[in-house]
Amino acid sequence: MTSLNIRRSIEELPGSRIREVARLGMGKPGVIPMWFGESDLPTPAFIRDAAAAALQRGETFYTPNTGVPELRAAIATYMSRLYRRPIGEERVMVTASGMSAIMIVLQTLVGAGDNVAIVGPMWPNAAECVRIMKGEPRFVTLEAGNEGWRLDLDRLFDACDARTRAIFVNSPGNPTGWMMGNEQQRAILDFARARGLWVVADEVYARIVYDRDVAPSFLDVAEPEDPVIVVNSFSKAWCMTGWRMGWVTTPVALGEILAKMNEFNIAGPTTFAQWGAIAALEQGEDFVLWQRRRLAASRALVAERLPRFRRVRFTPPDAAFYAFFEVEGMADSLAGCKRILAETGVGLAPGIAFGEAGEGRLRMCYAQAPEKVAEALDRLGPSLD
Ligand SMILES: Cc1ncc(COP(=O)(O)O)c(C=O)c1O
C-alpha cells in the first residue's frame, strides 16, 4: 500500500487481537461472547431513567470541561466514603470513559523518547497510548505461581531510568485478576516520590472484588499532593460500558491541566449521561453488591470446573471478572482462540493480545449469568481436555 502520509507511529499501530476473534463470531446465533470485558446485563433501569429524564428536561448543552458540578460532588462523596478519607471535588474530573482518561493522562505525561513502566500482562490499550505519544512502554511482567500472580518490585524499579515518566499499574488487573496490596503501593509511591515520577493507577475494577468491599487503592496510601493519578470508570461496577463515562482523581495542581486536555479531546463528557452517572453513585450500591454476588457464583463455577480440563492450568483470580488460564500445548493463542470459537461457539480472548507474557493463555470474561458460564464450560470441554 502506498504511504498514507500520516505519522509512522499511528500507521504502525496494531489492531486489537481481541476484536480479530470477535469479528469472526459477533452476532452469530448460538455464540457465547466472552471476549470483551463487559457484563451481559444492560445498565440498571434507575440509571437509564436518570439519564433519560435529564435528556427530556433539556440537559443537552456543553458542561464545564471537568464535568457537571453535581457529578463531581457525587464522585467526591462516593470516593470519600469508600476510602474513608476526605477526597475533595476539586481533585476529581469527569472523563469520557476510563480509556479517554488514560489517553489524556498519557498525552499529558509522555513525550517522544520517554518511557512508562507498565506492570503486565495488561489490557493493551495503555501501552498503545504510550506508543501514540512516541514513548516506549516497558513491561515488567507479573510472575505466575501456584498462589497466583506476584510482582517483583525490584524488577519494576530496575526498569525505570532517567526517561521514565510514570509507573502504570492496573490493579485489580485485566486480564490476570491480580490485586496489588497497600504495602507494594506504598513502596511504589516512595520510589515515585524519590525519583520524581508519576504513578498512574488504573483502578477501573476497584469494586469487582470478592472478599472485601473495595480493592486496595493508591488513594489509601497517598497524600493529596502526591504524584498519583487514579483512573476510574462507570463501565464495570454499574454495567455502563456503552456510556463512555469515567473519572480521574489527581492532585489539585494537575486539575487545570487535565481540564485543558479534556477541552482539546472531548470538550466535556456527554451531558445527560453525567446525570445517569450521578444516579449510579447515589443509588447504585445495592446493584454493585448484587452484581458482585452474581459474579462470585460465576467465578466459583469457573474455579471448580476449569482446572478439571486436563490441558488447563488455572488459579482463580483475586478480583475483576476474568479467568486467564494456561492451555498446555497451545503455542499460538490467536489461532487457538479462533479454532475454539469455530469448534464450540465460545468466544474467548487470546492471551497474546495482552503482550508476549500472555502467550499460551486464554482469557474468559465470566461476567455472564452462571447458567451461561456453565454452558460455555460444557462446550469447551472437548477442546481443552
Ligand atoms: C484495565 C482497564 N482499564 C480501563 C478500561 C477502560 O474502560 P472504559 O473505557 O470502558 O471506561 C478497561 C476496559 O476494559 C480495562 O480493562
* Highest-level CATH class of the largest domain: Alpha Beta
In percent, how much strand structure appears in the residues? 15-25%
State the helicity in percent bands: 40-55%
Any idea what the CATH superfamily of the largest domain is called? Answer: Type I PLP-dependent aspartate aminotransferase-like (Major domain)
Largest sheet strand order: 2-10-9-8-7-3-4
Give the end-to-end Cα distance, rounded to a whole number of Å.
43 Å
| Secondary-structure class | alpha/beta
Largest sheet: 7 strands, mixed
CATH domain topology of the largest domain = Aspartate Aminotransferase, domain 2
- State the shape: globular
User: What's the domain count?
Assistant: 2
Number of helices: 14
- In CATH, the architecture of the largest domain is 3-Layer(aba) Sandwich
Order of helices and strands: HHEHHEHEHEEEHEHEHEEHHHEEHEEEH
Each distinct ligand? pyridoxal-5'-phosphate
Rg value: 20 Å
Average of the residue pLDDT scores: 96
State the low-pLDDT regions, or none: none
- The strand count comes to 15
If you had to describe this structure to a student in words, what would you say it looks like?
Helix 2 runs parallel beside helix 13 (333-344) and helix 3 (45-56) packs antiparallel against helix 11 (271-283). The protein is 41% helix and 16% strand. It is of the alpha/beta class and 385 residues long. The chain starts with 7 loop residues before the first helix and ends with a helix. A seven-stranded mixed β-sheet has the order 2-10-9-8-7-3-4, sandwiched between helices. Strands 11-12-15-14 form a four-stranded antiparallel β-sheet. Strands 1-13 form a two-stranded parallel sheet. The structure holds pyridoxal-5'-phosphate. Residues 37, 97-99, 123, 170, 174, 202, 204, 233, 235, 241, 246 line the site of pyridoxal-5'-phosphate. Pyridoxal-5'-phosphate is lined by residues 37, 97-99, 123, 170, 174, 202, 204, 233, 235, 241, 246.
